[in-house]
Amino acid sequence: MALPPPLSAKDEKSFAYETIKDRLPLIVTRIVDFLARHRTNFAKQYGEVTENECKSCISAMDKLRYEIARDKPILLLNDNHTDDIHIWNEYLQKEMDQGKVISWFQSNWLLVECYMYRKIAEAFNLTAHLQHVDPFIEMKQHTFYSSVQAIDVVLAQLNIDIEQTTDPVNNKSTIEQQFYNYMEISLWGNQCDLSLSGGANRSQEHDPFHQITELKTHILINHETSLFNYLYDQQAYLLNFDVCIDFVLDNAGFELLTDLCFADFLISKRLCSRITLHLKCFPWFVSDATKTDFDWLLEQLSNSSSNSVWQIASKRWQQHIQNGQWIIQTHRFFTLPYDYSYMQQISSELYCTMSQSKLIIFKGDLNYRKLVGDLRWPLNERFETALRGFQPTSFVVLRTCKADVQVDIDLKVGQEITKIDPRWMVNGKWAVIQAFFKKQTEKDI
Ligand SMILES: O=P(O)(O)OC[C@@]1(O)O[C@H](CO)[C@@H](O)[C@@H]1O
Ligand SMILES: [Mn+2]
C-alpha cells in the first residue's frame, strides 16, 4: 500500500511550517537566555572553565538558530561517547546515501524536530560540566508550582477515593466513574505542554473535576468505556494474576502529576498489578519528563511539611516504587527519530517486553504522531492502517490534538468541528482517547 507523504514544513500552510519558522527558534533563544543567566552560578559551582563551556553552548545554540532560519542541511552528530549516536547517525546517513539533503523546511517534520532536541543535547554533552544540566528545568518546575491549587484538589480527592475501601465487585459503577475521572484528568493534563507555547507558562489553575465535565464534548474519540471493561474484566482484583501496564509518559509538572494519579488509581483499585513508567533519557520537546523531573516531583510532595494531602499521596507512591508495583524506566528508543512501526526492528527487547503487557498507555501528541508515522493521512483513515503493523499488544493514546494529523474521524464530523473551531487540530482544545485492541491469537490464549 502506498503511504501518504510525511508532514513537512515544505507546506507553508501547515503547522509544521509554523513550528519550524517560529516556535523552534524561540525555544533555542530561551536556552541562550537560560545559559546567560546561569553562567556565573555554574562557574561558581563547577569552576571557571564552565564559563567557557557556557559560551560554547551559547554559540552552538546561535549556530543552530541560524541553520534553522536558513534551512541549512542537517549534519551527522558529533558527541561520540553517547550510546544512541550510532543509531542516530545511521538513520541520517541512510537518508543522505539516498541522495537526500535533510534540511529543516524541506524534510520530514518529525525527523527535524526530534533532531533539534538531540542537537541541543549534543552541545551540552560536549562539555565536561554541563552534561547533566537541563536547559528547560526552570520552565518545567514553574508549571508545577503555578498549578498548586489544581494539584491540591486532585490529590485530596484521590486520597479519599483510594482510602475508601470499595469492594470492586459490588461497587463497579463507583470505580468505573472514578476511572473515567482520573483518565480524563490525565488526558487534559496534556494541555500543559511547553513546546507548543515555546516555553511560556501553561498552568492549570482550576478545579480539574469540574473542568473534565465541561470538556467532555471536546473528546472527539472516546474509547474509555471499552478500556474500563477491558481492564475490569480481567479481574486482577479477584485472582492473583500479574497484569502489567506500560505507561509511556509525556510532560513533567502538572501533567506528570495527573498521570501518576491515574497510575496510582489503577494500582490501588487493582485494575492492574504492575506499571512500568517510561521517562525520557534526556531533555526532550521542552517539557517531557526525565527521571530527574520525576524524582523532583516526588520530593516536592514529600517535603511539603505543611501539606498532609501531598505527603499522604507521596508516601503511597514511594511504596508503589519500593514494592515493585511502579517500575521507573528510561529507554533510548523514545528519543530516537524512529516512529513506532520501527520499534520491533530497532529496539526488539523493548517491543518484546511491551508485548507482554495487558495495555500500553501512550500520553500526548508526539506519541500519537509517532504511532501514525506523522504522515498526511486522510481524516477518515482507519487507526489500524495508520499504525502500519505496530501491534505489540492493546493500547490507548490520551492526546490533546496539537499537530495536523488525526485518523478515525468521519469526514462530515471533521467539517463540523472545523466550522466551530478552524484550528481544532493544533490548538490543544480538542482531544482523543483512542484505543487499539489487539485481536487475540491462539498463541495468546
Ligand atoms: O507530545 P506533547 O507534549 O503532547 O506535544 C508536543 C508538541 O507540542 O510538540 C510538537 C510541536 O513542537 C507538536 O507535535 C506537539 O504539539
Ligand atoms: Mn511532550
Automatic annotation (TrEMBL):
Keyword Manganese carried by entry: yes
Cofactor annotation: Mn(2+); Ni(2+)
GO molecular function: metal ion binding; phosphatase activity; protein carboxyl O-methyltransferase activity; pyrophosphatase activity
UniProt-listed InterPro entries: ARMT-1-like_metal-bd_sf, ARMT1, ARMT1-like_metal-bd
Keyword Manganese: yes
Any one annotated GO CC term: nucleus
Catalysis performed (reactions): beta-D-fructose 1-phosphate + H2O = D-fructose + phosphate; beta-D-fructose 6-phosphate = dihydroxyacetone + D-glyceraldehyde 3-phosphate; L-glutamyl-[protein] + S-adenosyl-L-methionine = [protein]-L-glutamate 5-O-methyl ester + S-adenosyl-L-homocysteine
BP GO terms, sorted: DNA damage response; intracellular phosphate ion homeostasis; methylation
EC number: 2.1.1.-, 3.1.3.-
Keywords on record: Hydrolase, Manganese, Metal-binding, Methyltransferase, Nickel, Transferase
The Damage-control phosphatase ARMT1-like metal-binding domain, residue ranges: 19-412
Pfam entry (one): ARMT1-like_dom
Record family assignment: Belongs to the damage-control phosphatase family. Sugar phosphate phosphatase III subfamily.
Task of the protein: Metal-dependent phosphatase that shows phosphatase activity against several substrates, including fructose-1-phosphate and fructose-6-phosphate. Its preference for fructose-1-phosphate, a strong glycating agent that causes DNA damage rather than a canonical yeast metabolite, suggests a damage-control function in hexose phosphate metabolism. Has also been shown to have O-methyltransferase activity that methylates glutamate residues of target proteins to form gamma-glutamyl methyl ester residues. Possibly methylates PCNA, suggesting it is involved in the DNA damage response.
Domain notes from UniProt: Subfamily III proteins have a conserved RTxK motif about 40-50 residues from the C-terminus; the threonine may be replaced by serine or cysteine.
Protein name stated in the entry: Sugar phosphate phosphatase
